[in-house]
Design a protein that fits this description.
binds zinc ion; 477 residues; 15 strands; 3 domains; binds adenosine monophosphate
């Protein structure tokens, strides 16, 4: 089956065909870093990580851009309350660093470019000048506004057709031609940072940065653009209006993807509602990958209502998946390929192939992770049953491990358990050598040294288990 993506622009699942075969240009709206990253943010970026990883798994080369909004009212307010307005840059620096560190812990792949607004002021000013020259924008009291009535496709993404519903930026309504015009450039306020332009000093409005940086790094038209659902209106609607007016293109972006809210007691998790749970708080109690597993267990478009109980459940599931993988790795370490196998073994292997295909097909259906996970569990339960029955065969284990490796490629959830194939053999040989060295010391009653080796291995997350006639090793966190 061809990959289908639900496109917010058409409200339909569409076959995915990038503008250039084999290459996917993807822009994801990044954070406004003025406070700790919360698990609502994590949901959106984990979802796009899965989307990117799956596209790569399917053979596409993905170019992934994510902006950092490093100037904004909220950032300046936070600076005023903490480090002082003159040191405002410290706020986005501090919190964007934290943002990436938090995502790294969940093995969320970093974007190829993370352009910052303040480093693209010249490009932004140029684009605004073009919009003024073309008659889509006007200057008013040192600010510049986009004149929505001049652009006929306004509302195409949000499907909001009643103009009265378009009202935005109501605090400056007196200086705009219409209540729904929005700022491209905001004139400087006393004491705040500013840049000089032909219309006077000021700083960019929020929406223009994504239009400018998206097309600077990905071209005047590109394949995927997205963020959380709250960005559909006005942010993405405005981005489209600016881009299509400036570059004379339609559609500016082919597929729009929006992630459902992470809610808590049914309400969107957001700083303004005061119901946020910082990612760091979850990490102090759970492995970061437990949170990732929890977030991808639901389909990305459905709302996900957070509870600690559900997270506990995810922790148990994560342990199950991880231990299962370790068991298969451990089994294969001591086994050799058999010269012949029975028909029942071939059937077992087929079962994994079929479930693997269903797993991938689920993801091809608009990245349906919740369905895909059900097939993963079918595999785990099936193979676990064979283990209990003492019928785990070498071919079944190999096929299963291949599948778990693919699962990891697409989710990053087994990064701590799986060693890259290319170095696995060498790593295994090296471990054999270290275990043997320790046993030589034990036999010579050199217990201090033997224990030292065991302790050092444990520090780096490798546990030795002494069995009756041999010592085995397992990877731990
Ligand atoms: P912000 O820094 O608030 O602009 O948010 C960064 C990204 O996180 C945006 O794409 C938001 O849509 C997304 N986001 C924020 N809160 C949530 C939430 N509760 N659930 C899902 N995504 C969210
Ligand atoms: Zn944006």
């Amino acid at each position: 089956m061809q990959l289908l993506i639900y496109n917010t622009l058409t409200r339909m699942k569409e076959p995915f065909e990038p503008l250039t075969p084999g290459i996917v240009r993807m822009y994801v709206c990044g954070p406004t870093p003025y406070d700790h990253t919360h698990i609502g943010h994590a949901r959106t970026y984990v979802a796009f990580d899965l989307i990117r990883r799956f596209l790569e798994f399917e053979g596409y080369t993905v170019i992934h851009v994510m902006n950092i909004t490093d100037i904004d009212d909220k950032i300046l307010r936070k600076a005023r309350e903490t480090v002082g307005l003159e040191k405002w840059k410290e706020i986005p620096d501090k919190y964007s660093k934290e943002f990436f560190e938090v995502l790294d812990k969940m093995y969320v792949k970093r974007p190829h470019y993370a352009p910052r607004v303040t480093e693209h002021i010249e490009d932004i000013v140029k684009t605004i000048s073009i919009l003024i020259d073309k008659g889509y924008a006007y200057v008013s009291q040192g600010s510049v506004y986009f004149e929505v009535d001049k652009y006929s496709r306004y509302g195409q993404l949000s499907k909001i057709t009643r103009r009265e519903s378009w009202r935005q930026e109501m605090d400056v309504v007196a200086e705009k031609k219409k209540p729904y015009d929005f700022a491209l450039w905001k004139r400087a306020k006393p004491g705040e940072p500013y840049w000089n332009t032909p219309w006077g000093p000021g700083r960019p409005g929020w929406h223009i940065e994504c239009t400018v940086m998206g097309s600077k790094y990905l071209g005047v038209q590109f394949d995927i653009h997205g963020g959380g659902q709250d960005l559909i209106f006005p942010h993405h609607e405005n981005e489209i209006a600016q881009a299509e007016a400036c570059y004379d293109v339609h559609p500016w972006v082919k597929y729009w993807i929006h992630i459902g809210y992470l809610t808590i007691k049914g309400e969107k998790m957001s700083k303004s509602l005061g119901n946020i749970i910082p990612v760091q708080e979850v990490f102090s109690k759970y492995d970061p990958l437990v949170l990732k597993l929890y977030l991808i267990s639901a389909h990305y478009r459905t709302p996900l209502d957070f509870s600690w109980d559900a997270l506990n459940h995810a922790a148990a599931t994560y342990n199950k998946i991880e231990n299962f993988t370790k068991t298969i790795i451990g089994y294969l370490r001591d086994e050799e390929p058999p010269s012949s196998v029975g028909e029942d073994v071939a059937k077992d292997v087929m079962k994994i192939s079929v479930e693997r295909e269903k797993f991938l097909e689920s993801l091809r259906e608009d990245f349906n992770t919740s369905k895909a996970m059900a097939h993963l569990h079918t595999v785990i339960n099936f193979v676990n049953r064979r283990i209990v029955e003492n019928r785990l065969s070498y071919p079944l284990a190999v096929k299963t491990l291949e599948f778990m490796r693919e699962f990891n490629e697409i989710t990053g959830l087994l990064e701590k358990v799986l060693v890259p194939v290319s170095s696995e053999e060498k790593f295994t040989e090296l471990m054999k050598l270290i275990v043997e060295l320790r046993n030589i010391h034990r036999r010579a009653k050199n217990y201090e040294l033997a224990d030292w080796i065991r302790g050092k291995l444990s520090e780096i997350g490798i546990k030795l288990i002494d069995q009756k006639d041999k010592t085995i090793w397992v990877l731990e966190h």
